[in-house]
Queue: 3 jobs
Job 1
Amino acid sequence: MDMHAGSLAVAPAVQVRPRSGLRLGWVWSGALLLVLAFLVIYPMTMLLLGALTGGDPVVDGYKLESLSLDTFRTVLGNENVHAALLNSLVACGGGTAMAVVIGLAFAWIVVRTDTPCKRLIAAAGMLPLFVPPLVGGVAWAILGSPKTGLLNIIMARMGLDFRVDLYSMAGMIFVFGMYYAPYVYMFTASALRNMDPSLEEAAEMSGASSLRTLMTVTFPLILPAIVSGMLLSFIVMLGIYGIPAVLGTPAKIPVLTTYIYTLTNWSPPLYGTAAAVALLLMVVTGALVWLQGRVLSGRSYTTVAGKAFRPRALRLGPWRWFTLGLALFYTAVVVLLPCLALIVAAFRKFLFVRDLASLVDLNQYSLIHFDRLLSNPQTTQALLNTLETGLTTAVVGGLLSFAIGYTVVRTRVPGRRLVDIISTIPVAIPGLVIGVAYLWAWIGLPGGLYGTIWILSLAFVARFIPDTVKALSTSLMQIHKELEEAAWICGRSTLGTIRTIVLQLARPGVVAAMTLLFILSTRELGSSLFLYSSGSMVMAVQLLGLYEGGNLSITAAYSLIQIMLLGGVIGLSHLLTHQSTPQPSSGGVGRAG
Amino acid sequence: MLTRRHSLLAGAGLALPGLLRSAHAQAPVPRYEPSPALVEAARKEGRLVLYTASFTEVEQETAAQFNKRFPFVRIEIIRASGGQLITRVRTEAAAGKLVADVVDHSDRALMKGIEDLFVEYAPPNGADYLETARISDRIWPRITPVWALAYNSELLQKPPTSWADLTDAARFKPGTLGQVIAPSGGTTWTRIMFERQVMGDDYWAKQAATKPTLYPSSAPLADAVVRGEVLAAPVVRNVVYSKVKDGAPVKLVYPTEGIPVCPYATGIPKSSTRQNAARLFLDWSMSVEGQSWTMAEQGNLTSLRAPPRGLAGFDPAVHKIWLPEQKPFETLRDPWTEEWNKTFGYRQ
């Protein structure tokens, strides 16, 4: 599965009906381009102006004569920026390497072995992608703080000298690797399923051992999928704020996202510098997206043959219990441990744990943090705002994404390639950057957009267009053009055909894409930070406020509420569509935050 | 540059009246009685938006207390760090969309720079406030937070009692002390200005030599003290006070060399559409009733000439309040913050 919608244009496309005409095609794609210009191009232009003038274009204004590259020069010559960039590359590179090892092993266990409970393992292994990064970071901080981490307290009680220190580069790499391994898993598992096993059988018949077959045939054949998953993991990690904020900041390890946030948090804030650093991050991300597209345009489908086959399951014998153990260990570490940590923190009166006896002393536990949280009217307001924002984003974004996806994948209207390219740009823009850009771009617009949930919804729609377009495009690609042609022959109009044929057949995909949008917007922090107002506070922003407010227990209580909300939405979506629970194959779920 | 002696004298105006009062010898607190017209007008407005750089939990307590008297005015709190808050105010104001009804900031110098955004306002007891704590006819010291030393009482048997103790590298291993970074806002700028002016030019270097763990603000630092991440740290007292009352393993001491205080700067924007609710809230906050409550329940000081009560644990014979002079507070911030960042190896 590729990352951007661009390569989906190779799908079977149909001509817009002749009577629609070339002019109508231009009108349609022109309308889409106008919407995309408002959502993507205009905010990015404002961001560039901010970087070129070194200030806040709304407050300070901007004049053409004041444009200069000074901020960029300063940023590029600043050794702290170099350090943040280097830290980003090391943390994301290390995390990606770990994600590849885990994801690949996990994919092989699930797809190519007879390990028991595979479906359960596969489902549980995907859960980390739905956990907001800030929540994941907080959970691991509670577990792995060098001085007060629960793991260290338990190890001390057991008489072990070893101590865990997740407030470190190694800690960030570990958590990144654990949380983003599912990306590599998704890509490689899909490739392994689609791979004709006759290639492996041929190798084994030639005398190669199972291990040698794995290393010399299987993995090289799915190399594009591995590289693709690897690059996507890297890109996603590069834009994440929550994990490095919690684990890197105490160890004085800035990465680009935390550095940008610090610049905007400064007193007085350095927005121009933040914009310049943000553009640097965009360039790095954009280069990786381009590289990923290049990789995918090569050999990604060469293992898919025309004939039917069943993926080969390797009989592991007694070793299958070992692989089951490995999979369960991963699931326990990545799902159960953080949840337990959040539960302990949320229910404990104070997060001071002197020893193991204190940890299990029930007198230390109470509902005080939930009481405080739920008695705060802001919590209810944030919950309602989050649901409202999520719903509007899902509906508006779903419609727009369907329109873009249909135009790109199933028509040959003029300008569709440009629509495709512009709608893909937000992939390379981290949430924090998009927040500043949208604030500058939209606060001055007439009509009272600022201060409403609509500004948040529009920001989320723009930010996640690439993810939903691709998720929808996958469904659209599966519908053969003959079905539409049959409807036209029967006299249906283009819109009628879309409504009665395409939408009906793509319904599971549409529901999945809209659910995906809902989940993404519920988790999204970066772009919300600069756009919320008193009446439009959302849960992600309130969560960061609680974390920055220093009360880890209330933060943990709120994290549990957010996780339960997301779990409810995923469950509901699953019930509605039976099988179209949003698979984060688009790479979108982990992008938020 | 100010000498140590000069600095202490600068603080004397705020120090003398309030600290002569014992914590246990309090006169009855007069109840704030607003005019019926103001109450009715505020009731019609029904809510107000408070932009504040103070801590969310602290301001939620304030809102809850205000609502005990005036339940018909709902307070919506937007909390942001000093830098973000001033940018939000400036950006919204520039776009004509400032939604705040009350803006409350820790940096008086930054607020002075945008004082034209605010209406001329004085609370009914405005004349009772110290001139040294004020910067404008539009902006008032709604709260006056005070610094103290917090320590984990379960882990530290011999707590620090002075600022000098925080430079004792033999006593505190690297990472066991905590510090809030200098550029976090006006409250911390007040503290680092005090450290240099009163404790000496080399104080930062000596403190940095203990390799303290740095935190973005007092709130996470206070929680870190409770959890035992750090053993002791200077913190804004109001963020720890509620934890102490709840029974957390943390205690507070006032350092002997002086106690920096940072009067906030609070005003009502001209663009506010709920001026009456804003006035009612500010009038109550600034009243003797409001100031007495925040002293008793949040551990803040007051900028009233005649404080209505003392502070628990505060001995006026031993402890001296320190308030920075306004001019150096404005002019020294950027160069000194830059120096502090370098001394503590804090990157920017």
Job 2
Amino acid sequence: MKKLRLIIEREFIAKVRNKSFLIMTFLSPLIGVGMIALVVFLMKKNDDKVKEIVYVDESGLFSKEDFKDTKTIKYQDFTDLGFEETKKKVEDGNHYGVLYLPKQDSLEVLAKSIQFYSKDTPGLNTIENVERNVNRRLRNLKMTNLGINLEKIKASRISSDIKMFNFSGEQSSKLINGLKIGVGTVAGYLLMMFVIIYGTSVMRSVIEEKTSRIIEVIVSSVKPFQLMLGKIIGNASAGLLQFIIWGILLLILNVVASSFFGLDMSEMQTANMSPEQAEALKQAASGNKMQMIFQEIMKMPLVTLFFLFIFYFFGGYMLYSSLFAAIGAAVDNETDTQQFMMPIMMPLMLAVYVGAFTVINDPHGPVSVIFSHIPLTSPIVMLMRVPFGVAWWEIAISMALLLITFLGVVWLASKIYRVGILMYGKKPTYKDLWKWIRYSG
Amino acid sequence: MSNLLEINNVVKRYGDYTALNDVSLHIPKGSVFGLLGPNGAGKTSLIRIINQITMPDAGEIILDGEKLAPHHIEHIGYLPEERGLYKSMKVGEQALYLAQLKGLSKAEARKRLKYWFDKFDIGAWWNKKIEELSKGMAQKVQFIVTVLHQPKLLIFDEPFSGFDPINAQLIAKEILQLRDEGATIIFSTHRMESVEEMCDYIALINKSNKILDGKLDDVKRQYRTNTFQVGINTSNPKEVEAKLKENFKVYPADFRMLNDGLTLNVKLTQGNSANDLLSYLTSQGEVQHFVELIPSANDIFIQAVGKNSIV
């Protein structure tokens, strides 16, 4: 036990003292925030530019009423100038584009013959705005033609907000569901990142011991299994430290950035949303809804969630990093790791994709359920499912499977590790690894 | 003298390959024991078993009267042939770490390190990283780390590789001194001249089998051929040579004498002794050279391995 502590300590210090660790820890949040700030800055800059669109309405069916100005698009009526003149003027001038609404016999023909000329290909937002305006007017005209009372249509509009409950009486809503997805996704991605960054770091540390040839000196003092375990735990500790520092730095930078540049993080998020979504979010963020979210968070089984998070996080990390350690032991240098990395990365990626696409839509569907039980994917998929409420026996089975697999994999990995660390030269094949596993003692 | 280490009927297999086939060795306390053998003979396999890096498939190992167990790690110091240190770690920290893995307390390790660093005059390296040192310097640090916990049993696998002759001499002296202070040393090497210089006992392993072991002098006696190198100043060399051929086996010799005389290798045959040969020679002229050809470790090695390979 004392030796294990020594190894963990050494691995931790070696990792933390490494220059690249320091750079990663302190520079990457800066770079991250810097990039976000840049994107926001450019987005604002972009928004500042107003597109002036002129329209020539020969049909006589449209008015300025139909083309409402927005923050970024302004409409002007150039009908009097005539289409050809306008086109020429716009081509030479500062206007962004021309919308041409020709005179036609019927609305249907008109709908198919409207044209838009611009200097460059317009963005999706611009063209959507123009189309929406045209469509609304044409639909209204059509409805009037069909003898539908527009006033009544307007009066008939109603929006529902379905309140969702489960049978134990907990209330939920779309918003709360979103929150749950958020919590699950963040946890899942965090785990994946952690596994990849620190799993490969374990692997590199094993390879370093092999190439510097210190390994035989070390294993004459400690058991290879102790060394492997110490490495895995030491690297994880360094990783946790890094994550904590990142969390603190991001918090600080967020505060600094928002007070300094007047950037509002919520503005950033709404920038990409349609007005309706943004509106909903704003409503949600204000007053009662905010309180409700807070209450909802408190209502989630936080203690259970936290416990499960810890369990799956470390279960998943230990499972994968022992595989990484075995790979490191099997090869002589990092370039040889490729062939063995594939089978490890695949379930990891699969888990994230299943999590991102299936769990979000159908947290209790067969695909989600199956992948939350397969040990190589369960840490990520189950973490994403848990906020939606999973039956205790399902969690118990999944945890038991993970634990059993973990023990089995560590046993196999330590066998490969024990033989591999003392093997030099030939790049091993899967057949060699199998042979090593079968060696006794 | 009692044995510090007894290796009894050890077998080690890797899959279908047998690395050690029923090998037994007894290593006396306070001796330097040369473990010899060509590449791939099984030396490293045996050493790894003694270090408990791998386990034997059969047989047992007794260290100082006890069956080998994990706690014995602290009584063994091992300098492997494939050796190295953490490149980006500082010399002092690294030495402390490795010493603690061998069971020393930090304070004790620091105290002993100071003694050795002073002895080798390398105190200035304490805060340097290994990658800043030359290969020979790193080897010195490695040697210190190996012996620091004052193990009863020291295992050196090719200890002189990587050292220049001066430092090799220094290390050889240290090894012999450690023996004199009571340590038992297993010394594995190809360099036969260092075997002559250092070993009290030797064992020869070839193709997974022990083919020879014992006190170096005894082994040499066993391999002596009763051949003498003689040099004589005589007026009628042809006659002397012919006469010698009647009673002994005579081979041409290849060594230099100060004045031109007859030089020969003469092997005693049944029924005659060295004195018979000498007294005949003295009656024929002035004997300038008379030396028994004692087989060197190198000769024994080549002869034993060669014989073993043919069988």
Job 3
Amino acid sequence: MAAPEPLPIVRLRHWGRWVAAAIIIALLVLLGVALGNAQIAWDQVPDFVFYKVMATGLLNTVVLAVLSQAVAIVLGIVIALLRRSANPVARWFAAGYIWIFRGLPVLLQILLWYNLALVFPVIDIPFLVHEQTNVLISAFTAAFLGLALNESAYMAEIVRAGLNSVDSGQTEAAKSIGMTPAATLRRVVLPQAMRVIIPPTGNDFINMLKGTSMASVIGVTELIHAANNISSNNLLVMETLLAAAVWYMVVVTVAGVGQHYLERAFGQADRGPLARAGKALRGVPLVRSARV
Amino acid sequence: MSEPLLRAVGVRKSYGHTEVLGGIDLEVRKGQVVCLLGPSGAGKSTFLRCINHLETIDAGQIWVDGEPIGFRQRGGKLYELREREVARQRRDIGMVFQRFNLFAHRTALENVVEGPIRVLGVKPDEARRQGLELLDRVGLAHRADSYPAQLSGGQQQRVAIARSLAMKPKLMLFDEPTSALDPELVGEVLEVMSTLAGEGMTMVVVTHEMSFAAEAADEVVFLADGAVVETGPPSEVLSAPKHDRTRQFLARILA
């Protein structure tokens, strides 16, 4: 008997996808038309983006975010180690630290630091500091303290999760070849914990970049405050805010790209077949954090 | 007769109210291979981990090459050593784990040279040369730049053995080194261990591989419920056990 003629295959038609795409595009067109007709002086926005005060705002935003995040990472590691300590008092202290600095809103913390002079007019640490609180804690310093300490509580939890993710056999192997606890942490545990620590830290840093906007409340000239500065003269509130928005998108995008490369560098910690498959996927657009 | 390389006297260890080791005595002379056998839960692995102080003992004492492990004897008391001081003692005691525990973020060669460079202060070039030699000895010089995840279980365990040997230990501890391996990979690891035994390395091996115990061991120690039941050369303990517990265990494992 002759083999039957192979029948042609008709692929499933995804009508729903076409309808959904049409609706989305229609809505976007409507939005574009609405924005085009809106009473916004679009031509002014690019000018505001490059105003001198915006440059100051940008600088303060970036410096405040980087400084706060850096100090938060160091403090976070210390608190995470205390949290894992064999000493119960150290553990309680770390838990309490996280409870308070994670529990209070950042804005409230910034305001508390900013108004510290009301309760402690003078800061006097024998042989170290003797200064008026108002002089010592500027608006910038208050914002830095609020942001860094709040973030350090989050970092402590991130670092702790990272340290816990490393198998205890790694520590035992390090001990068995005579490595000290400090060397074990630095050479064996932390490098492997990095794979777990870096992605959420990158997320937190992007949050931090935007969180600096809260410093505008106490008069630090970051991006929002800079925008308000301009609009208080020309009343073009939306236009100046959009100019600030442009800069936020720029710094957040740069940070996102940086995170991508950091993750790739530390992802090499485990170059197994699965990890390599994950790396191959990373070249594909839109498959951003293909992690294994 | 000369002082034994490993001496354990009355070693006791409890977890909470459960006694895991109820007073273990053991002597291992230099160059001897001793296999610890026994049912799971007998305390074999716990005892092995006490020898390099990964577990702290509750009573008794352990000496390696005449040095009390984990404690300092002074005025009739044993003072627990600091972790840094224990780390110093562990340099001379190699350990091979059931789950290999290679440093996952380092290549085979980097695993092997980590101890010599960071702990012993060997020059990196010299350590690399010695490391490649060791990898060659376990038949893996060609995988020096592979990461653990790229190696089979048997290969990982051979790298782990090379990593221990790189410290030039006086004593090697093996904690069920082939239990996590696929059956066809057990042979390559046992082969390396047999060669090592033949070269005169002092070894204490927790294992379920009766053929290895029969061929390579100078002495077999049968443990049950945290106590030594029977000790002797493998020809006696394995073929003509004196105790019922040993007989039952062997009947079950050889069945």
